[in-house]
Input
Amino acid sequence: MTGGFSSMYMSRNRVRAWDEPSFTIQAGGRHAPIHPSAPKMIKLEQDKFMFSPKGEYRRLSVRECARIQSFPDNFIFKYTDVNHGYKMIGNAVNVDFAQILAESILRVLKKSIAIKKAS
Output
């Protein structure tokens, strides 16, 4: 685990179930979501949650965050400080989304070129 849990972090339930969409992967380990095997956090009041005393909690690892960002498991991240690993992944565009966007741009460019050649 990287660092403690700030009051901002504890202001909402940071646990998502396996079948729920993940929280946004941010550029810092202190903001990484909690592993889905943990029990949901307990709401104390508005914007204030606590961990269940009956559960075990851990943040997602750098590799788990990379999977959410759709990096293949064989993709190698080079860093010496785990915080730098979280930062790289949190600052990255989701790989699948980037591919879809790039293919869409390529289709539009090819169509534009074809139109210019035809005129």
Q: What stands out?
A: The CA atoms of residues 46 and 88 lie 32 Å apart. The longest helix spans residues 95-118. Strands lie at 42-45, 48-50.
